Sequence to fold (113 residues):
Amino acid sequence: MPGSRKLGKKSDSRKAMLRCMVTYLLENGRIETTVTRAKEVRAMTEKYITLGRNNTLAAKRQAMAFITKETVVKKLFDEIGPNYANRNGGYTRITKIGPRRGDAAEMAVIELI
Fold:
């Protein structure tokens, strides 16, 4: 996995959380989370959008192995990938929105551009 942030979780929990967050981001277009999680999600999401740009069977199988919903994989290859065909990276934007009320963790919104 890109990056080396542990995010306070063991490796299997961390991978499951990132899978869910990447799936949700591709499905809905934006997520509100902490800045460090947003940076990890950005790295994974950009990897799979780049994969979605080349529409091969191997790429679809690789995406299906990570993304948790088949409908999101279909959307990735049918809609999202072709939208970014002329763009070389930088598919997401992270905007800081200030501290969280409970524990003052720095919050951010990550969204597809």
About this structure: The chain has one domain: 11-112. The chain is about 55% helix and 20% strand. The two ends are 23 Å apart (CA to CA). The longest strand covers residues 92-99.
